[in-house]
Task: inverse folding
């Protein structure tokens, strides 16, 4: 065995914990310097890596594993994804400011992807592959939403905002696409990877897709100032309507 799975889980916990520092520091620094903190933006980013850190800590301690007929299921990993992937989509939505329906639809499809994945991992035979197929089809719909629907319905203006959004969106699409590939190669699929190697690859992908996302988002935080026209508006409040009369997702500084 390459390295015990617990070792990789500890590495994941430490990396995610470290990744939580930049948004919290940026939040504190901005609040101290200007009185405007962009709290919801930074809080969302901190939630991505903070929840993942707790999940990896649980896995390192051997908590959250369920024995099934086909093997051990890391339930806490899927709980992590069920929380953190919608947070990533939420942050993209807060930048792009699509209609509520578009953002809710993306998050709903994302939940279907995760639910299909955990069902496929917890079962075997035909049921497992059908669940994987459903999750795969839902993921294709999610990718379409991120590449087409979300930008098309976006109401945010400004080249800097669009540039940061585009970079974060592309990071998300490219890296998330690798997860089902790992699932297929792991014991859940064709069994070409050992459990330790599976954990190693998932830790690496999680670090790049979560910590990397957060670091890039914090580095591009100057784009948040371009959203200042909606200062003081809470999440979900209306700042305008699209062609269909739907509300857009917006927020301001706390």
Result:
């Amino acid at each position: 065995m390459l390295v015990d799975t617990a070792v990789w889980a500890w590495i994941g916990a430490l990396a995610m914990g470290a990744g939580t520092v930049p948004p919290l520091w940026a939040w504190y620094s901005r609040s101290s310097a200007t009185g405007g903190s962009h709290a919801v933006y930074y809080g969302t980013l901190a939630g991505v890596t903070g929840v993942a850190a707790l999940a990896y800590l649980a896995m390192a301690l051997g908590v959250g594993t369920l024995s099934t007929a086909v093997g051990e299921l890391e339930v806490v990993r899927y709980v992590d994804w069920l929380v953190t992937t919608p947070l990533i989509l939420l942050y993209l939505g807060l930048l792009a400011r699509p209609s509520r329906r578009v953002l809710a639809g993306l998050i709903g499809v994302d939940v279907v992807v995760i639910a299909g994945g955990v069902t496929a991992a917890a079962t075997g035979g035909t049921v497992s592959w059908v669940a994987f197929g459903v999750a795969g089809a839902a993921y294709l719909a999610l990718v379409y939403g991120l590449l087409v629907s979300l930008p098309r319905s976006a109401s945010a203006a400004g080249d800097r905002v669009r540039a940061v959004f585009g970079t974060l969106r592309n990071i998300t699409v490219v890296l998330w696409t690798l997860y089902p590939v790992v699932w297929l190669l792991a014991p859940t699929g064709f069994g070409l990877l050992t459990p330790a190697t599976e954990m190693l690859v998932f830790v690496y992908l999680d670090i790049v897709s979560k910590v990397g996302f957060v670091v890039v988002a914090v580095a591009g935080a100057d784009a948040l100032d371009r959203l200042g026209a909606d200062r003081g508006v809470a999440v979900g409040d209306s700042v305008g309507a699209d062609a269909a009369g739907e509300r857009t997702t917006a927020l301001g500084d706390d």
Notes: The chain has one domain: 5-227. The mean pLDDT is 87. The beta strands are 65-68, 71-74. Residues 5-227 form a domain with the Rhopdopsin 7-helix transmembrane proteins fold (CATH 1.20.1070.10).
